Amino acid sequence: MTVNPLPPRLSSSAAAWWGGLAAVVFAVVATREAASSADLAGPVWLNALCALGMAVPLAAGRRQAVVSVIVTVMAAMAQTTWLTPSTNLAMPFLALLAAAFTAGRYACSRRMSLMLLGLCLAEEWAGPIAVNGDPVWDAVFVSLALWAVWLLGRSALARFDLARAEQARRDAEHERTEQIRAAVTAERHAVARDLHDTVAHAVTLMVLQATGTRLIAHKDPNAAVGALASIEKAGRQAMEDLRAMLHVLRQDPDSPDSPPPNLEQLAALVDAARSSGVDACLDTSALTTELPRPLAVTAYRTVQEGLTNAARHGPGARVRITLRTTPGQLTITVTNGPPAADQPSPTTGSGTGLAGLRERVTALGGTLTAGPQRDGGYTLTAALPRS
């Protein structure tokens, strides 16, 4: 999804630079205007200082609106009252317009904005009218102009707020889309991991059984028939697991989740491996409590991966599976010895199952260790925290 940003604006440093330049130009022009006026009064440098004060909104109005407007009004009042009258000067009028726009555009609140506008209007009526004796219609014209410019500032602020709100909405929509995309990707990875766990385990057992059946078929046909029955049973179990997984994927997200694996299913998993020729032993005597769903699923997948690795890398070896709980941890250990000499050569896997299991365990805050032993066997251990 493409997000349209706000209209490009000057950076803070560039805006400050151009504002400072505009303020300097304004101060120079205002000083020359006062110095060349027939009503010039007081030292030129004091008039220049007042001109510089009236230029403050151009330089600092974005960052310090309140201070800028107050300084401008004070500078204009000082020049009108004690120095050169603003009757025939254009720059003080422009300074008040800039102050009114600053009050409308950059003031922190509407109340403060109105107060600053009132200060600009007060300066116009107290200075040129009360002190200089300018016509009332001039003050009315200036007041209307200040109101108009202030409204322009408020309109610009409203447009900016709308653009910012629209940008925030688009950013939120983009973030929500990315979160949905990430969730879909994570779900796909989870489905792929479960498919691998289910299919790889069943297919590994079936391949080993088929290999053993081929080796003994001509010597012991009855044993070969029994092995074929085990292959059939493993294939049917894999199909049932796939159907169950597809049912979960197709069901309504609001429907209750399928029940987590229990000790009976875990024992059935070990029995299926045992019937296929794996000398497996399950010990759950140290399992003191019922496991929550995330731990139960991860424990099941850990045992499944351990049996698959044992059948693949240590054919004929004895496999011991132990589950034990402590007050704060669940530990699953799958250990197999070295492959038997009379068994087919060990096969290598892709490592996808172990990587997926490590990701599953890490997601629960646990640790997974796996590696060969000195005697040629292999140990897989998953330690999961329990709340």
Structure explained in plain terms:
With 387 residues, the chain is an alpha+beta fold. It is built from 11 helices and 5 strands, in the order H-H-H-H-H-H-H-H-H-E-H-E-E-H-E-E. The protein has helices at residues 12-35, 44-54, 56-60, 65-82, 91-106, 110-129, 136-216, 221-250, 263-275, 293-313, 352-363; strands at 279-286, 318-326, 329-336, 367-372, 378-385. The protein has a 5-stranded mixed beta sheet with strand order 1-2-3-5-4, with helices on one face. The two termini are 40 Å apart.
Structure, briefly:
The protein has 387 residues and is of the alpha+beta class.
* Mean pLDDT across all amino acids: 76
How many strand units?
Answer: 5
Tell me the structural class: alpha+beta
Radius of gyration (CA) equals 41 Å
Strand numbers in spatial order across the main sheet = 1-2-3-5-4
Considering the chains and any ligands shown, give keywords for the structure.
387 residues; alpha+beta; disordered N terminus
Question: How is the secondary structure organized here?
Answer:
Elements: H1 12-35, H2 44-54, H3 56-60, H4 65-82, H5 91-106, H6 110-129, H7 136-216, H8 221-250, H9 263-275, E1 279-286, H10 293-313, E2 318-326, E3 329-336, H11 352-363, E4 367-372, E5 378-385
Parallel strand pairs: 1-2
Antiparallel strand pairs: 2-3, 3-5, 4-5
